Amino acid sequence: MWNQVRKLQKNRTVKYGIPMLLLIVGGSFGLREFTQIRYDAQKIKKKLDPALEARVKNKKQSTILQEEYEKVKDLDLDGWKNIRGPRPWEDSKEQQQAQLNKGT
């Protein structure tokens, strides 16, 4: 019997292969647990304060969109001018002066 144990201890598959497989399979289960902790923590962080959540739920999406429309309605979208920004190798102050001189 001790002979068989010694033979198994010298066998390369038993000596290197089985520990490697245990490491891979055990690591997989360990990583699953750690990632689950990560996602659970993110869920907890995303929860809002109950008072704030009640205020957010009371507002409807259409009223928010109406407010944004009122802000944008008065903007002059037809009278804009396309101004090129400076290239990385150009001096920005010179470009600004050139754009001002072109406009007048």
Automatic annotation (TrEMBL):
- In Swiss-Prot or TrEMBL terms, this protein is called Cytochrome c oxidase assembly protein COX16 homolog, mitochondrial
Q: Where in the cell is it found?
A: Mitochondrion inner membrane
Bias class Polar residues marks the residues at: 95-104
Transmembrane annotation, as ranges: 16-35
A GO cellular component annotated for this chain's UniProt record is: mitochondrial inner membrane
Q: Any idea which UniProt keywords this protein has?
A: Membrane, Mitochondrion, Mitochondrion inner membrane, Transmembrane, Transmembrane helix
User: InterPro entries per the record?
Assistant: Cyt_c_Oxase_assmbl_COX16
GO BP term, example: mitochondrial respiratory chain complex IV assembly
UniProt biased composition (Basic and acidic residues): 83-94
From what superkingdom does this record's organism come?
Answer: Eukaryota
Query: How does the record say this protein sits in the membrane?
Result: Single-pass membrane protein
User: Which organism does this sequence originate in?
Assistant: Sinocyclocheilus grahami
Please state which protein family the record places this protein in. Belongs to the COX16 family.
Q: What residue spans carry the region label Disordered? A: 83-104
Q: Give the PANTHER family listed for this entry.
A: CYTOCHROME C OXIDASE ASSEMBLY PROTEIN COX16 HOMOLOG, MITOCHONDRIAL (PTHR17130:SF14), MITOCHONDRIAL OUTER MEMBRANE PROTEIN 25 (PTHR17130)
